[in-house]
Design goal:
Its main location: endoplasmic reticulum. Pfam families: Mannosyl_trans2 (PF04188). Keywords: Endoplasmic reticulum, Glycosyltransferase, GPI-anchor biosynthesis, Membrane, Transferase, Transmembrane, Transmembrane helix. It is a multi-pass membrane protein. This protein has 22 helices and 3 strands. The chain is an all-alpha fold. A 3-stranded antiparallel beta sheet has the order 1-2-3, sandwiched between helices. Strand 2 (357-362) and strand 3 form a beta hairpin. Helix 1 (5-36) runs antiparallel to helix 6. The chain is globular and about 65 Å long.
Length: 498
């Protein structure tokens, strides 16, 4: 069935409504817990002068000290770094672990009569809450294209609105901006607007270091296009063109990360007593700062005392693992071959002596087509048909649906699932594992799988499957709400939480 414009508009309005409501709920809970409980660390309001005297001289007077103090008390944990960078720039080596898009953005909004530091924090909260609402809308639009089920897309977007890392999306953290630009970039990528997608992916890399991983989507598309030109069409000039375009797009995405490394090298290593990382053959400060100041490294977090943090991260890690296994089991040949899977083409079966299989390849015109005039194509996004959720998920297991459409859907999901798998392994093996809750919170496959599990209860005709689906769906919602309450309680009062 096709999604009517009225249905799409209703779904978008519903997602917008719940995105706004969820932000109001999170902000209300954070203020409530802050008023009811005493913070563990009362140093949030401490604001020493900037090392550069010129910045201190330009600081505006605090005209509303009580309001400013209340706002500054909410600047906790990593928010302290982002606000400090926006106020004073990159003063210390460890501050270079925090990428500049958020500090630059809130600095541009920091003109107020309240007080400079207070309005920086307020600007960051306003900016991130707006970015979150936009990210939820882009997730819906992306989901409609990928899962081809408007109802599942809507439910996945609503689940994102109440995701377990919600408190970070309403604080001065980079989660909201990264989610907006990474999910928005994926929407434009799957829609065929590759140049716009490149810009959005680059902005995601300007907000968080893991944004450079989005270059993998461009490389995945380039790999299929090169294969199509070289093996199927045998056009050498097209191969060269695809390689050049893909390389340029990838460089554009990686450039913010490399540029920031160069900026840090110039400020720390040139004309100063060099830090140890300055003398390396490839002087990238990010890995050194993460390892030296925060103890981040391969298996370095595998300690007895960190077991509570592994328990804290276990729900999202388990959900991510189940999501990956689920998608791989649906079309194992597609995933194991990185999308190079042959599907039957009935039209070609009638051509004697010809191979009846054709390879689905990714094209820049927003369509996945069979080579040389094949009969399988996805039209432009405004004409994309929404096949039922069971066609994309349950029916894949039974093989009762059109093979071409199913393979197309699976190919689109391959780079998304690979991205989720890499990030999950990194969170478990390298990072502070409790950060996984917010580190993985912008991964669309998590919400698609969770929504499918919750919807399977109402769509299944078998009682035991329905009960199992209802139980899993109930656990997912309990997990989300429990972490929202826990996160707003602990985070707002300066207690450790992810």
């Amino acid at each position: 069935m096709n999604q009517s414009p009225m249905e799409a508009n209703n779904h978008k309005q519903l997602v917008l409504k719940y995105a706004v409501v969820s932000r109001l709920v999170v902000i209300f809970l954070a203020i409530l817990w802050r008023c009811l409980l005493s913070p563990y660390d009362t140093s949030a309001s401490i604001n020493p002068s900037c090392l550069t005297s010129e910045l201190n001289s330009h600081a505006p007077p605090v005209l509303l000290p009580r309001v400013a103090a209340a706002i500054e008390n909410g600047i906790v944990w990593d928010s302290v770094y982002f606000v400090r960078i926006a106020q004073c720039g990159y003063e210390y080596e460890q501050s270079y672990a925090f990428f500049p898009l958020l500090p630059i953005s809130i600095s541009l909004l920091s003109r107020s009569v309240i007080g400079h530091r207070a309005v920086l924090g307020l600007s960051g909260c306003v900016l991130n809450n707006i970015a979150f609402v936009l990210a939820a809308l882009y997730l819906y639009r992306l989901s409609v294209i990928v899962v081809k089920d408007s109802e599942l897309a809507m439910r996945a977007s609503l689940l994102f609105c109440f995701n377990p890392a919600s408190v970070f999306y309403s604080s001065v953290y980079t989660e909201s901006l990264y989610a907006l630009f990474s999910i928005g970039g994926l929407y434009y990528f799957t829609s065929g607007a590759r140049n716009i997608a490149t810009l959005w992916f680059a902005l995601s890399g300007f907000s968080r270091s893991n944004g450079i991983l989005t270059a993998g989507y461009i490389c995945f598309q380039m790999m299929h296009s090169v294969y199509s030109s070289a093996v199927l069409k045998k056009h050498a000039i097209f191969v060269f063109w695809e390689l050049i375009v893909g390389a340029i797009r990838s460089i554009c995405i990686i450039f913010p990360f490399i540029g920031f490394q160069a900026y840090g090298y110039y400020n720390i290593c040139v004309g100063h007593s060099p830090s140890p990382w300055c003398k390396k053959r490839i002087p990238l400060f990010y890995d050194y700062i993460q390892g030296h100041y925060w103890g981040v490294g391969f298996l370095r977090y595998f300690q007895i005392k960190q077991i509570p943090n592994f328990v804290l991260a276990s729900p999202v890690l388990s959900l991510a693992l189940c999501s990956i296994i689920h998608y791989v089991k649906l079309e194992p040949k597609v995933f194991l071959s990185l999308g190079f899977r042959r599907v039957s083409s009935p039209m070609n079966d009638n051509k004697g002596g010809q191979d009846s299989a054709r390879l689905l390849v990714m094209k820049d015109d927003a369509s996945y087509k069979l080579n040389e005039g094949g009969d399988c194509a996805l039209k432009q996004r405004k004409h994309v048909a929404t096949v039922g959720r069971r066609q994309n998920f349950t029916a894949l297991e039974t093989g009762k649906t059109d093979d071409n459409n199913l393979s197309t859907a699976a190919i689109i999901q391959v780079p998304l699932v690979l991205h989720l798998g890499f990030m999950t392994a990194t969170a478990f093996l390298v990072m502070h594992v409790q950060v996984a809750t917010r580190f993985l919170s912008a991964s669309p496959p998590l919400y698609w799988f969770s929504s499918y599990v919750m919807m399977s209860a109402s769509s299944s005709s078998k009682r035991n499957i329905a009960q199992r689906g209802f139980g899993c769906g109930y656990c997912i919602w309990v997990y989300c709400w429990a972490y929202i309450f826990l996160g707003t309680l602990l985070f707002s009062n300066f207690y450790p939480f992810t």
